[in-house]
Amino acid sequence: MQTSPIEVQKALKNINYPVKKQDLIEHAKKHNASNEVMQVLKSLPDKEYTNAADVSKEFSGK
């Protein structure tokens, strides 16, 4: 099953940017993100993300 950018952003609600990839994963895990969302986050490039659009841009390329 695929996930949508909306589901990814729901899992990252209230996160304070900028954040590193690992922080995105930990935040989503704490907020009970689905396995699909976790897979998407784990597949993102290992860099610092400055805002939600930055995450979505990387995700939409998948």
Your description of this structure?
The chain is mostly helical. It has one domain. The chain contains 4 helices and 2 strands; from the N terminus they run αβααβα. The chain has helices spanning 5-11, 21-30, 35-43, 52-60; strands at residues 19-20, 48-49. InterPro entries: DUF2795. Pfam families: DUF2795 (PF11387). This is DUF2795 domain-containing protein.
**Integer tally of domains:** 1
Strand order of the largest sheet: 1-2
Shape assignment = globular
Q: Roughly what is the average pLDDT, rounded to an integer? A: 91
Assess the beta-strand content as a share of residues. 5-15%
Protein name: DUF2795 domain-containing protein
Organism: Methanosarcina spelaei
Fill in the keyword field for this structure.
62 residues; two-stranded antiparallel ribbon; 2 strands; mainly alpha; globular; 4 helices
List the topology elements.
Blueprint: H1 5-11, E1 19-20, H2 21-30, H3 35-43, E2 48-49, H4 52-60
Antiparallel strand pairs: 1-2
Helix pairs in contact: 2-3
InterPro entries: DUF2795
Protein name: DUF2795 domain-containing protein
